[in-house]
Design goal:
Strands 1-2-3 form a three-stranded mixed beta sheet. It has one domain (about 1-75). The protein is built from three helices and three strands, in the order E-H-H-E-E-H. The protein has helices at about 5-10, 15-20, 70-75, and strands spanning about 1-5, 25-30, 35-40. The chain starts with a strand and ends in a 5-residue tail after the last helix. By secondary structure, it is an alpha+beta fold. The radius of gyration is 22 Å and the shape is elongated. About 25% of the residues lie in helices and about 20% in strands.
């Protein structure tokens, strides 16, 4: 979360918008006590990151990619033979 006074928000609006597009939430404060008065955040969620060489448009790793392999498949990968 990023905090910025009204003056800082006016001065750096473009940069704060870029940060919001990356998924950051920007809280805009007012006064000496820095009371929060507004929140700046992206309308849509940030795009999922792609793996280096796999920058094929539309390719996204599913959550299943990160699940553990079944024991039988692990045994085969570790040279257990069939």
């Amino acid at each position: 979360m990023i905090k910025a006074s009204i003056f800082e928000a006016k001065t750096n609006l473009s940069e704060l918008l870029k940060q919001a597009q990356k998924g950051e939430v920007v809280i805009i404060t007012s006064g000496r006590d820095k009371t929060p008065v507004a929140r700046l955040e992206a309308i849509s969620a940030p795009k999922k990151k792609r793996l280096g060489a796999l920058e094929t448009p539309g390719f996204v790793l599913s959550e299943r990619f990160f699940e553990a392999l079944p024991e039988e498949e692990l045994r085969l990968w570790n040279g257990g033979g069939e």
